[in-house]
Amino acid sequence: NDKNNESFKSSHADLVRCAVLDSFASETCDQMMNSYRQSHHLLRDYDIIESSPKRKGNLLLFITTCLGIHDSSHKSLVSTSVIKHWINSCLVLNTDESHLEEKLILEDEAGSNYFLKALLILASLPGCELISTEEVLNLIFESWFEGGMIWNE
Q1: Composition of the chain by helix, strand, coil, percent to 5
Q2: Sign of the CA dihedral 116, 152, 106, 137?
Q3: What are the DSSP calls for 85-104, one per residue?
Q4: Which residues of the chain have pLDDT under 70?
Q5: 124 φ, ψ to 5°?
Q6: Helix 133-146 to helix 114-124 angle, to the nearest 10 degrees?
Q7: How many helical (H) and strand (E) elements, i.e. helices and strands, does the chain have?
Q8: What are the tens digits of pLDDT across the range 86-128?
Q9: Which of 26, 76, 115, 129 has the most other CB atoms within 10 Å of its CB?
Q10: Rounded Cα–Cα distance for residues 101 and 123 (Å)
């Protein structure tokens, strides 16, 4: 019976995994990270936060579901290329800003970088092979760099 359950879970994940979900997941990451970075630029440059429309839905739940974190088999619903895209999008050192000291102002006290948070949760799972050791170190560095709630967890 457990064997049937495992094959159902595996086939269920395989049914959901597709190019459309990969594309949607990548676009969602791009939009969220652009919004996240822009809000920090506004804080740094103008000391104001413009009100922006609030997202409906639970973005962290969407990301962790795509990564398979809530499933006991930890089978990802998105391809490894999407996960790599998410990792690269999270790393502030990949942005075109030139001065490291300017970036240190961007402390994320609320822990709103959900992609970073979800990737660190995934990396902490026993036997995770979707994120390399080097990528884990870069994500941990990014967490320290952004500070706030994610680093403190």
Answers
A1: 65, 0, 35
A2: negative
A3: HHHHHH-GGGSS---HHHHT
A4: 1-13, 15, 37, 39-57, 92-111
A5: -80, -10
A6: 140
A7: 8, 0
A8: 999 888 655 555 555 555 555 666 667 889 999 999 999 988 8
A9: 115
A10: 28
